[in-house]
Amino acid sequence: MTKRSWLKDSPAAAVLLPIIGLAGAIALWWLATIVFGIESYLLPSPRDVVISFMDQPSYLLTETGTSILETVEGFLLAIVVGVPIALLIVRSVLLERLVYPLLLMVNAIPKVAIAPLLVVWMGFGQWPKVVMVLLVCFFPIVISTAQGMKSTPIELVELLRSLNASRTQEFFKLRLRYAMPQMFTGLKVAISLAVIGSVIAEFVGTTHGLGYVIYQSGASADTPLAFAAITLLSILSIVLFYILVLLEHLLLPWAQESR
Amino acid sequence: MIRLDGVGQVFDGREGQVTALEEIDLHVQQNEFVTLIGRSGCGKSTLLRLIAGLISPTSGTVRVAGDPVTGPRRDVSFMFQRPALLPWRSVLSNVMLPIEIDGGEGDRGKAAYRDRAHQLLELTGLTGFERRLPHELSGGMQQRVSLCRSLIRDPQVMLMDEPFSALDALTRTELSEELQRIKMELDTTIVFVTHSIEEAVLLADRVVVLTPRPGRLREVVDIDIPRPRTLGQNAHLTEVARISGLLHGLLAEKVAPVEEPAPRQVDEVRPR
């Protein structure tokens, strides 16, 4: 094996190269803060960020837990609400024409703008956050599910009809299964949005969650703490994303090659 | 076995109505192998779907085994141009799909059908591939799986809509000869749509020639060449040439300029 192909193809390289890239970026960042003598409240060094985290790890992890809970709850709720809406849209042209513009409108509203309103309507508890997450991530779920349901190849539909399958059989044995890979595409888009949604919601009317931590540390110019919270959010977002990727691999082994 | 009397089919197209079939009278005997041949748009696929009960004729009657066709029947199987395999199911599980749709039991136990499935897979040279997923197979093998699936219920009638036309020439010949062999072992009536004269002559007891716009029955040609027929060496080359020539002549007759059929409406894809 030549050196070149080792770099491109070996599994070790597949794991090592991203790590090297990340480490390089952090090193550059660190170097910049030292070389240019940047003040910590403008751009903290990686070391400052780690120290800031180590100062109060249990507090930050608790707030991370709060954010995870809101994100996951809102995300699951979006599936529970979004998938049936998608199924109804696919089932009837009438409903599609009736509901689709509404969905577009709701999706077009800048979510940051309604965060304070959600607090007015639902108080200071968990609900405004969960609903915000629901609002940001249900649209990709609806669209991808609807697209998936419509993508069933006509010859497979005819096959099931020629076998005298009932509508329920057609739905569960064919359409839903066929829609799954596209649904997962939507879910992966939605989970990243869900994390953003929870942060937006936590900027307003609450004293919990990583969004609140960032908001507070901004107000007190505690930039290292903000960076620590942002890092935790990024990790959270990546982990949730890869949980979905893993689920997809386990549930849809057929979808990787055949599409 | 199959009887069509004065069958006509009119579709609502974008620019008014399109007559796909007109005044078709056809009688297919039990155990007969009939091929329907014609240019694209002559309504041969429509005719097959009428017999399958996938669509209802706008005029005339279609009967299978004496009963008017009102919908898909358990003893009639349909094979498509594309393999139409469910991509998440293994080969064996795809072959068993019709039994599963029936509720697993049917007139024999599920185990008996499973044995039958293995037998059919062996017959088509797919032993050892039972657990594979469709995307791991070649096009020819996929279509063999599809053939096994259409045989699993031991159908009285098999309807085949250009099943080999998407395959390469060699695989196509191979599968045609295989189908002929299987047909000789089974008491099944087969109606086979094709636009290949070669395929029609190899397989059919009778070739039905359709002309397009509107689809009409132009001619029925009997083929008396003894079986098994092969495409390569053939003791009846002159006979094959005579029939092929005749079919060529019938298909090449001047017809009105052909428009492509209107694309299928999106509505058809919506769930019922």
From TrEMBL, chain A:
It holds the Pfam family BPD_transp_1. GO terms for cellular component: plasma membrane. Coiled coil: none annotated. It is found in: Cell membrane. It comes from the Bacteria. It is a multi-pass membrane protein. The chain crosses the membrane at residues 12-38, 75-95, 102-124, 130-149, 183-205, 225-247. Residues 64-244 form the ABC transmembrane type-1 domain. Its main location: membrane. GO terms for biological process: transmembrane transport. Keywords: Cell membrane, Membrane, Transmembrane, Transmembrane helix, Transport. Belongs to the binding-protein-dependent transport system permease family. PANTHER family: ABC TRANSPORTER PERMEASE PROTEIN HI_0355-RELATED (PTHR30151:SF20), ALKANE SULFONATE ABC TRANSPORTER-RELATED, MEMBRANE SUBUNIT (PTHR30151). This is ABC transporter permease.
TrEMBL record, chain B:
Pfam families: ABC_tran. InterPro entries: AAA+_ATPase (IPR003593), ABC_transporter-like_ATP-bd (IPR003439), ABC_transporter-like_CS (IPR017871), ABC_transporter_ATP-bind (IPR050166), P-loop_NTPase (IPR027417). One of its GO terms (molecular function) is ATP binding. Transmembrane segments: none annotated. PROSITE patterns: ABC_TRANSPORTER_1, ABC_TRANSPORTER_2. The keyword Heme does not apply. Keywords: ATP-binding, Nucleotide-binding, Transport. Residues 2-237 form the ABC transporter domain. SMART domains: AAA. The keyword Transport applies. It comes from the Bacteria. This is ABC transporter ATP-binding protein.
